[in-house]
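Take our chain:
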Amino acid sequence: MMNRLVLRVALLAAVGGVSGCSSLFGQEGFFRDRGDDYLNADMVPPMKLPAGVSEQGIQQLYVVPQISNKEVDFSGTFEVPRPQALSDSAFTDRVKIQKLGEKRWILVSASPAEVWPQVRSFLSRNNLEVVYTDATNGVIETGWLKFKGDEEFKDKYRLQIEQGVQPDSTEIHVLHMSVAQDTPGRGQVNWPASSANLEREAWMMDELAATIASDGGSGQAASLLAQTIGLSGKVNLEAGQGEPYLHLMLDYARAWATVGHAVNQDGFTLWESDDVVGVYYVNFDPAATEEGDDEPGFFSGLFGGDEEPRASSPYSLREVLAHLQLDDTAENRQIFSSVSSTSAEKLKDVPGYLVVVRGSGDDIKVRIRDGYARNLPARDAKKLLNIIRNNLI
């Protein structure tokens, strides 16, 4: 009799435990998944204040920005893109000095808000007087300096801290000016377009780069004042007339050079280029971008191995440009105005892609077309442009 009572109590406890768990978990339980609750939320009308009460302190906590790009069709299905990858080639070193022609700048793999206090710390530690700062635009100007052994001139530096072409990267541009020692030192300074003395510019740049590299970024707090530097970025993927393109806020010489670097990375192979007409003729091999591709070993490179030669085009860039198959539109006439397509005859099976660089000043647009200069499907063009985007330097 006692055993039956114990068994009955145990069964009741087990049933109670099961029902208790179901009441705690599951769709109706206390600990249910609430991840989709926002789908059933009701719209709440905005708060209305009585007449005469200031609305200055009332604002939206989570503002939904307006969509400015009207070229994108949001009516169909949407595939969430993969996060933008950082360029491995751009950040091999945390700090490096890049050069293009006579222009040199420091590239740091950190955000401008992190680099700003490091630059200020460098100037302070070296007793370099700072007479002007503009954290919003990333500008720092030193006072007049005097180099040892130079009794004729005095010097001044302007440091421009900008967003780099890659996310979470910073460029530091150094401008040097030198005037006679007896020149009045007060009042507004008319900065030259380029440094007066490249050696003294290089001195400041080398010292600053070495200091930032040795600091390693450890223990440095980001500057709230410098959070607005480079919010818009130097490179954006945009669209016009239904065609995606990269919008580069760089001068043409640098845009041409950095695109030339990018179209020889991550599956791209540069076949030929013509800087006069602003076109790169390239190939793209998707297999070369797949993760896990094994690099050829030492002995493979020593004895030749089984590596297949890179594909090449049967046509030169000049032949391709002379046989373009363009739709007669105002946009095409503008984009290819520098190209003389002399033959209406169509070449057979033109491989590869044409990367077209157009623009002037700091307004450069980069498009990618097929071997006949015809538009690619928007999805394919975006994919290829994003690969180029990730390898700009």
About this structure: The first strand starts at residue 95 and ends at 100.
